[in-house]
């Protein structure tokens, strides 16, 4: 069996692909056997063109497939064989030192199902391409076991294949919340969710706490996951644990919004404005509390707007018919597939220019 597999998922991220792939090549240079698979969600920019320059396998999801991060991870996993599988998003850069320590710890802890990082380093997309790495992880670092996944740094984690074979991998039909849903299945199967106290990646993204970013997440269906997960686990022993850890905020927001709609309906039918007035008063109270906690009226308004979209997303996600993960079509388009040594030789001698294993750099745009 191959020791390590790396699955990269991308969608219109040509601006970061060289940085991501080169960081992975460097971090895995000492592993005797490894494979790298990039799964692209039908990008319309030069993401695939840049990825083809590197010694990796490249596949592309077809336009007719349901496109989501979970689908990319599912397809990537199905095309790997590694004992351990590292998943990364296309807007990340793997920090050196984390992966070797994580694999070592996972080998020493056979009940470990997944290794996370306590944090990521958040930077704007225009962040410098060369930055000093954080202090390396101390040899023999002791991981923390995570017993409640109320918040996770999604997209970057190392999994043990035998555990995923037991509990199932990512649900490709989930538009979001696929990581905590999988962590919950891992824990309830008797395995451990572990966390190292060092950042795993630099994450290059726009600030998320803005109305435009939130509306963008809604447009990409990233607010449907909680409702989908609740629907998937209806009637199972995982429903209540999931609600406690991930669903209560969205469920509370949904009840609050339902109360408002009910009050409005009652006002229109009975011409009684008291229920609607009480609900509006309660909204003002919530806004005041949020503004005090956030120390900003603008951020308080954003919090209420976020809750409304969470409630709407929960309802839409819950109404979606749950499909069995194994029914997801796996006929992704293979764009590049070759052995590591062969593909490395092709890339390193391209255009007659000899280049280093880990410093092959495509021109960034």
3D structure, described in words:
By secondary structure, the protein is of the alpha/beta class. The chain has 2 domains: 4-205 and 332-352, Spore Coat Polysaccharide Biosynthesis Protein SpsA, Chain A, CATH 3.90.550; 211-319, no CATH class. Helix content is 43%, strand content 15%. The protein is built from 12 helices and 12 strands. It has helices spanning 17-27, 47-51, 69-78, 98-108, 161-167, 178-188, 211-219, 225-232, 239-270, 274-294, 297-319, 340-348, and strands at residues 4-10, 34-40, 57-60, 84-89, 92-94, 112-117, 121-123, 144-145, 157-160, 192-196, 201-204, 333-336. The strands form 2 sheets. Strands 8-10-6-9-4-1-2-3-12 form a 9-stranded mixed β-sheet, sandwiched between helices. A 3-stranded mixed β-sheet has the order 5-11-7. Strand 2 (34-40), helix 2 (47-51) and strand 3 form a beta-alpha-beta unit. Helix 8 (225-232) crosses helix 9, helix 8 runs parallel beside helix 11 and helix 9 (239-270) crosses helix 11 (297-319). The protein is globular. Residues 340-365 have low confidence and may be disordered.
CATH homologous superfamily identity of the largest domain: Spore Coat Polysaccharide Biosynthesis Protein SpsA, Chain A
Task: State the name of the first-level CATH class of the largest domain.
Answer: Alpha Beta
Extended strand count: 12
Helix content: 40-55%
Number of domains: 2
Largest sheet geometry = 9 strands, mixed
> How much of the polypeptide forms β-strand, as a percent range?
15-25%
CATH architecture of the largest domain: Alpha-Beta Complex
Spell out the helices and strands N to C.
EHEHEHEEHEEEEHHEEHHHHHEH
Whole-angstrom Rg: 22 Å
On the 0-100 scale, what is the average pLDDT?
85
- The general outline is globular
Strands of the widest sheet, in order across it, are 8-10-6-9-4-1-2-3-12
Quaternary structure: single chain
Going by helix content, strand content and strand pairing, the class is alpha/beta
Cα end-to-end separation = 37 Å
Ranges where pLDDT stays below 50 over 5 or more residues in a row are 340-365
CATH topology of the largest domain: Spore Coat Polysaccharide Biosynthesis Protein SpsA, Chain A
Number of helices: 12
């Amino acid at each position: 069996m191959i020791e390590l597999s790396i699955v990269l998922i991308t969608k219109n991220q040509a601006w970061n692909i060289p940085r991501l792939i080169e960081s992975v090549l460097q971090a895995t240079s000492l592993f005797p056997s490894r494979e790298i698979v990039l799964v692209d969600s039908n990008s319309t920019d030069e993401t695939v063109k840049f990825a083809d320059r590197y010694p990796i396998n490249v596949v592309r999801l077809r336009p007719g497939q349901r496109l989501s991060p979970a689908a990319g991870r599912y397809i990537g996993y199905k095309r790997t064989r590694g004992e351990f599988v590292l998943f990364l998003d296309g807007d990340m850069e793997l920090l050196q030192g984390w992966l070797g320590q994580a694999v070592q710890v996972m080998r020493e802890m056979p009940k470990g199902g997944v290794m996370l990082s306590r944090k990521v380093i958040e930077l704007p997309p225009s962040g410098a391409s060369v930055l000093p790495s954080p202090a390396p992880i101390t040899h023999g670092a002791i991981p923390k076991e995570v017993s409640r996944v109320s918040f996770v740094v999604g997209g970057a984690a190392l999994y043990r294949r035998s555990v995923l074979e037991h509990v199932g991998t990512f649900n490709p039909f989930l538009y979001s919340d696929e990581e905590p849903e999988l962590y919950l299945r891992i824990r309830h199967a008797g395995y451990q969710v572990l966390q190292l106290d060092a950042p795993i990646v630099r994450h290059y993204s726009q600030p998320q706490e803005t109305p435009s970013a939130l509306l963008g997440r809604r447009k990409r269906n990233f607010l449907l996951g909680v409702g989908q997960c609740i629907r998937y686990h209806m009637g199972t022993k995982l429903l209540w644990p999931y609600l406690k850890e991930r669903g209560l905020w969205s469920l509370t927001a949904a009840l609050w919004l339902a109360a408002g709609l009910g009050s409005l309906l009652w006002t229109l039918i009975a011409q009684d404005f008291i229920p609607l007035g009480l609900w509006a008063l309660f909204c003002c109270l919530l806004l005041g509390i949020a503004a005090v906690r956030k120390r900003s009226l603008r951020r308080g308004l954003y919090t209420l707007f976020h809750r409304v979209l969470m409630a709407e997303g929960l309802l839409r996600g819950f109404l979606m018919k749950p499909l069995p993960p194994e029914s997801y079509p796996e006929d992704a388009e293979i764009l590049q597939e070759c052995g590591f040594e062969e593909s490395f030789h092709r890339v390193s001698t391209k255009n007659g220019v000899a280049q280093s294993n880990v410093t092959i750099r495509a021109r960034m745009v």
